[in-house]
Amino acid sequence: MAVPGYLEFFIDPSRCIGCQSCVQACSECDTHHGESMIHIEYADRAASTQTVPVVCMHCEQPTCAEVCPADAIKRTADGVVQSARKPRCIACGNCVLACPFGVPELFENQQIMMKCDMCYDRSSVGKKPMCATVCPSQALFFGTRQEILAIRPQSMPTNRFQFGNQTITTRVNVMAPRTKARPPLLDVTAAMDERPKNRTIRLKVVGQGELDPFAEVEI
Amino acid sequence: MPVPARCGKHVSDCAAQRFGDSCWGSAGDLRSPSRKIWCTAMKGYERVRAVIIGAVVAGILAALIVLGSRNLTHFDAALVGYTFATLFAAFGIAYRYAMWLQRPPSRMYWRRGWRVLASGAFLKRFVSGVRRAVVDVAGNRFIFRRGFLRGAAHLSIMWGCILAAAITFPLVWGWIHFETVPGSLNTYRTVVFGFPASEFPLGGIISFIIFHGLVWASILVIAGVMLAFRRRMMDHGAAATQQFGEDVLPLVLLCAISITGLMLTVSYTWMRGYAYGFLAVLHAVTVILTLLWLPFGKFFHVFQRPAQLGVALYKESAEEAGRATCKRCDRPYAAAAVVRDLATVERELGFRYEIQAPSAKKDGGKNPEPAAGPSKDETQRRANHYQQICPSCRRALFGLAQSALWNPAVDSERESGAA
Fold first, then answer.
1. Quick one: CA torsion of B239, B242, B248, B249, rounded to 10 degrees?
2. Which residues from B are below 8 Å from A41, CB to CB?
3. Which residues in chain B have their CB less than 8 angstroms from residue A75's CB?
4. Which residues are CB-contacts of B107 (< 8 A; sequence separation ≥ 6)?
5. Out of B367, B373, B394, closest to residue A102 by CB
6. Domain A8-191: which CATH class?
7. Are A19 and A40 in contact (CB under 8 A)?
8. Global pTM?
9. Which residues of B touch A168 (CB under 8 A)?
10. Mutate to test the interface with B, among A6, A7, A32, A71 (most CBs of B within 10 A)
11. Which parts of chain B sit beneath pLDDT 70?
12. What ipTM goes with this model?
């Protein structure tokens, strides 16, 4: 079984509302029984409510796999980077520290690293991963490229990321503003000084002198 | 669709990937011809070195066989097939171990582990190390934590195999043989490496247990294999990720060895030796096939897995030496020595996570900076490698970077709306 090539994962962190539905759904996946492998990270907990859903990006050259001293992490031919093979993993934690996206988790008591494997039991038979199934804002979307381009006319997917001098290409895509040019490179280290934007919320009142309970909310 | 590996080869074409090893020793993109030549040359050197190590180990084992069997005096010629299979297995295991240790991350941990042992830090942790070896390795505690039946299956298979190996290999190599004690035909003597070791009476409970040692081992292995097969058939997650060669074939081989071995006992005990010759050949074939496959498949973890003890030792001593603090959030997140070593390994592998230039300000100062969090200047001054950023901040940066892409679009939309 393999994840069909025409099905892709698209993440749009700016759509995340931090509802944690994906976290709950993820823990029901059969490949990592009861443990949630998705991260909902606060961009800056003290200053903002902005949340970031982080799943494994399934890199073409997975740093986690290459720094694994036990050679326990394998990338299958369909481009999915699997969790550490249990007989081999020696729980050193190299992968946890090396992953540029901060995805793998080490379970010291079980001596094993586990990570998002795109719900391989589901995606390998053409079903959506658990998180994408329940995400109410579709910050996590699993489907074809045509579908995502049709429902997000202002967005386009990109799968190239810059970390310092290192460019990483992934199987999972992130939504960026649509341009006619090549999809942009997402420079993660350039965001080192970024802070969540202070959002101003205005109620745009329709009509003159009367309050509209269904006023459009502009964020 | 096959995925290009670092050298431009497809994974399905790559010998290293086929044998379960990942591509390493690469400096960046290996699609250029000079890099390919360098990679090929290095691989060749590493292979030659590993072949020599494998040959030395197999040679030492052969010498020990000659020595232990007293110039092959006690060597059982009927078991010569097993002997050559074990010699090949010794060569293959040493070869793969040598190849494995030449990978930059494995080599780093190997060196660090021995350095900790040599430094005397091991003595401080001797008791905890022994306890960990007994509880985790011998008792499989960490596997029981993944599930009771899973732990029971592994424990049963592991001790069954250890028992079988402890009985079979010394017998095959002629290191142990039994002989009657002169003057007492009812007493057997165990001879180890040509030296008399112990005596026990024939027909007693001890001799029954000793001479049926492989039966007990078979029962343990079959019970464990049944539990493992049950999980692999009922667990959806295991069914989705398992591979025939890596996960199912080892169980099939263990089951075949155990059942054909048991059938030998059944044949000579209750069936007056019916089909004994055929069963003996069948058993030999299954055992020899397993021995030949031993270095290349899942069973290699038997030799690889004890490394977890060395890793734990190194991590403990590194933690005591000091923790690294995230350059973005100023929180400690890992042992500083481990982070430094990892950055070195990444460089050796060809990754370039160095952050040379400070990032430019993207928003043009439109948004006021929140009071919380580290100052920009401070972050720019201190972070020069992405390893210095903790996993939690990496996840936050991922979201912030995506937001930054959208900020100009949102701003221009607002401006056009306002106009």
1. 160
2. 392, 395-396, 398-399
3. 3, 11
4. B101
5. B394
6. alpha beta
7. no
8. 0.83
9. none
10. A71
11. 1-32, 35, 357-382, 408-419
12. 0.90
